[in-house]
Amino acid sequence: MPRRIAIVEDDPAIRANTVDALKRHGYEVAAYADRAEALAALRVRLPDLAVIDIGLGDEFDGGFALCRELRALSPALPIIFLTARDSDFDVVAGLRMGADDYLTKDVSLPHLLARIAALFRRAELAREPQQAADVIERGPLRLDAQRLAATWRGAPVPLTLTEFWMVHTLAKFPGHVKQREQLMRDANLVVDDGTITSHIKRLRKKFQAVDPDFEQIETVYGMGYRWKAA
Amino acid sequence: MRPRLGFSPGLRAQLALVALTLLALPWAGYRYVKEMERFLLEGQEQAQIATARAIATALNGRPQLMRLQPAIDSELRKEAEAELQQLAAAHGQTPAPAVGAAAAAPSESREIARESAPHEQVAEIDAILAGLERSTARIWVVNRDYRVLALAGSLKRPEAAAAPDFWQKLLGLLIKRPTEDFDAAIAADVLATGREIAGALQGTPGARVRNTPDGRAVVVSAAYPIWNGEDVLGAVVVEETTNSILSVRSKALERLLLVTLAAFAIAAAVLLAFATRLSHRIRRLRDEAESAIDARGRLTTRIDAGSDARDEIGDLSRSFSTVLARLSQHHAYLESMASRLSHELRTPIAVVRSSLENLDLQPLPGEARVYIGRAEQGLARLNTILTRMSEATRLEQGLAAQERERFDLAALVAGCVEGYRGAYPGHAFELRLPGGAIEVDGAPDLAAQLLDKLVANAADFSVPGAAIAVSVEREEEQEGRVARVSVQNQGPPLPDEMRGKLFESMISVRKERGGEPHLGLGLYIARLIAEFHGGSVRADNLPSGGGVAVSATFRLG
């Protein structure tokens, strides 16, 4: 049975293009133009994954509200924000609403498809019993590339996909400096340096929330970042 | 801007000038006092004429009294004059004696005519005069031959006992008080030239104001004819100084002066306070209006000086606020233009991109792929432009919320230069650092971003293969100690007219060339970051003329 993806996007051209691309990859797609329509349909039948724009028609923050409502309906439903808004404020707000990832519209369709596939995999693995996985262990850090799950000293660290791939890139070769461009490439981000900086900041904070003494991610000025060799 | 004149003294000086119109008040008061004095003088003349008439009435119809023939020789006359002076002096100290005492006192005025008139007749005139005598008036009786038949009273008033205190002395300098120290003698020409006496002997009563011989007092003399039927027998002359009026006048003037001075002082204080307050309010408004727009043309504060006052300054302040608010709206509109533009363009670009990507998945002829490839290249460049356009705005917004930490600028620059050696293989990098750490309070990421911009700029303008020199120095500036990070490159010097503008948004001196799009935002971002660190940015041509040094400062401590 094909997976069902709900797309909530007010721009008809983008909506149609995204729907086409997803359908071509074998997904079943339901597209909605505004929040009320989407919510009415999704209450009846929850999709397997939702891609939401923040600005929906007249509702400037309609996507945030929709995300909260969907999260209330299902805590496990993977949600991705796909929006033209790229300010730090929107990214932070979006992730706080419970979204699993936040992508700007600069992202290419193949990237979007990759993200969607990854989220499905994570959701699937979370449901299935533990099995041998693609795991990296760096001291207290444990990264499960299959489940896209990270733990620090045994405690799970809630990372978005973007953040997970950034940590993955850094931790794969501890001590090696990763340039911003590399991080962007590996995390499938098309953003400027400033956004990488704020991603790294958020990453540090997430780890510090689990372990206040966390200082594994090191800034190497003028070059990039590295995972401190233990 | 016009050279600023001394603003508050100006307003205050103007008000002081306007206040000079208050001087009209004491002048008007002075006129009033003069007028009053004139009335009093007239009154005194009338009163004296009335006195003279009363005495004359008593002597009317008694020709035997007037028919005295005193010896007409000048010696006697002189004697009389001399005696008169003595008498006057003595009389000034003692009140007018009663008739009974008159005989006992040898220095009585009534003795004047004794030598030249029968005793009983003179005594009768004396008795009449004594009855009418007043302490401040001198009365004489003159016959038709201008002979003084009798004389009573003195011109001098008893001196006021109270010694003048300091203030009265001070006022005395300004306002002359009447004095009792004057020459009371009857000058020779008084009788001869006195119009009023001549007039009275002609039968016309009259009064005259004359000065004492020494000019220290003014005497009003009134004369009234003594009738015997149709004939004029003589005249009664009543003399009195104007001192009583003068003392009233000088008291009035003193009071006027004091009241005026007090009113002046109060008015001056009030006006000064008012002017000070006014100019203070205007100054505050001016300062706020000036600081409302900073050097970069940004609106920093709102004007609230006097904005709740109901007067014209309040109005001015409110309209300033309105103008600023409108300006601010427009400014915000312009400032957000780049980021809004990039935001607005994102959606159509996403449409193009997703369409191209969908197209890419279709079976297409080979030539079509070429065009798709070119379209995607163009799209990528468009994307870069959009990202750069929003970078500056994002940085500006981010600076407000940026957390500060202490970091070692020298180590950061060293690390960055190490990175640039890999990133710019076409250039050599020279690094000059002062010894020791340079502790800066700020954001290391931003500092690195600043250096990135400076180095990228230097690399773009550098002669190919030439070294780029990066240096950090400690400097003393007016505002305190700073660290100056300077990046020098060999290459064409800056055009003079561009030097100041280089750090503004969307300004670039690059010659157009292919490849990376440039929006002239790099140095603008560098400036924002330097300003965040309490410093500034500067671009100078090297003394050799063969290159440019762009530097940024960071505040220390």
Structure description:
Chain A has 2 domains: 4-127, Rossmann fold (3-Layer(aba) Sandwich); 135-227, Orthogonal Bundle (Arc Repressor Mutant, subunit A). Chain A has 230 residues and is of the alpha/beta class. Chain A has helices spanning 12-24, 35-44, 62-73, 88-96, 109-127, 161-172, 180-186, 193-210, and strands at residues 4-8, 28-32, 49-52, 79-83, 101-104, 135-138, 141-144, 149-152, 155-157, 177-179, 217-220, 224-227. Helices cover 43% and strands 21% of the residues of chain A. The termini of chain A are far apart. In chain A, the strands form 3 sheets. Chain A has a 5-stranded parallel sheet with strand order 2-1-3-4-5, sandwiched between helices. In chain A, strands 6-7-8-9 form a 4-stranded antiparallel sheet, with helices on one face. Chain A has 8 helices and 12 strands. The radius of gyration of chain A is 18 Å and the shape is globular. In chain B, helix 11 packs antiparallel against helix 12 (366-401). Chain B is rod-shaped and about 165 Å long. Chain B has 15 helices and 12 strands. Chain B is of the alpha+beta class. The two termini of chain B are 36 Å apart. Chain B has a 5-stranded antiparallel sheet. In chain B, strands 7-9-10-12-11 form a 5-stranded mixed sheet. In chain B, strands 6-8 form a two-stranded antiparallel ribbon. In chain B, strand 4 (218-228) and strand 5 form a beta hairpin. Chain B folds into 3 domains: 52-156 and 182-241, Beta-Lactamase, CATH 3.30.450.20; 312-398, Helix Hairpins; 403-555, Histidine kinase-like ATPase, C-terminal domain (Heat Shock Protein 90), CATH 3.30.565.10. At the A-B interface, helix 1 and helix 8 of A face helix 11, helix 12, helix 13 and helix 14 of B.
